[in-house]
């Protein structure tokens, strides 16, 4: 499970840096593509996508892809709000959506709903399925058991 968590964290972190670089390009038309994030984002994405993986395995037999994506999007908003709320308590929350029209306490913004929805479909269909097929955790266990 550790390697999947790690890959999910890398994926989320990379997507956030890419998204902020694209947003900066759209705003400033600069080709520097200077995306940014926080180390907290790695842990937030890793844990969230691992939990989405668990949801996917349970929901797949019962719900369509669309319904699963709606559930994932609701989860993402709950997770972003919760982690942001905790981080804000320690003056460590790296994001603030207060300037957005449809924000909740500056911790989430409804303006990103379509991005989270589409991102959750990509996470399920590409990232989670591919990562699970790699079987990295089993390979690590085999390597460790041979070396002990």
TrEMBL record:
Transmembrane regions listed in the UniProt entry: 39-57, 69-90, 102-123
InterPro entries noted in UniProt: CmpB_TMEM229
Keyword Membrane: yes
Membrane topology recorded in Swiss-Prot or TrEMBL: Multi-pass membrane protein
Keywords in alphabetical order: Membrane, Transmembrane, Transmembrane helix
One GO cellular component term: membrane
Protein name: T229B protein
Provenance organism: Atractosteus spatula (Alligator gar)
Taxonomy of the source species: Eukaryota, Metazoa, Chordata, Craniata, Vertebrata
Gene name of this polypeptide: Tmem229b_2
């Amino acid at each position: 499970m550790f390697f999947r968590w790690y890959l999910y964290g890398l994926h989320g972190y990379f997507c956030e840096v890419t998204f902020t670089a694209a947003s900066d390009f759209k705003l400033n038309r600069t080709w520097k593509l200077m995306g940014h994030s926080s180390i907290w984002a790695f842990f937030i994405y890793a844990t969230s996508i691992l939990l989405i993986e668990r949801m996917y395995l349970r929901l797949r037999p019962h719900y369509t892809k669309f319904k699963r994506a709606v559930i994932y999007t609701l989860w993402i908003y709950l997770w972003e709000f919760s982690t942001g709320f905790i981080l804000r308590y320690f003056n460590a929350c790296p994001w603030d959506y207060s300037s957005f029209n449809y924000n909740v306490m500056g911790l989430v913004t409804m303006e990103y709903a379509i991005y989270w929805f589409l991102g959750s479909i990509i996470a399920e269909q590409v990232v989670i399925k591919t990562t699970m097929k790699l079987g990295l955790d089993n390979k690590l266990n085999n390597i460790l058991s041979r070396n002990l």
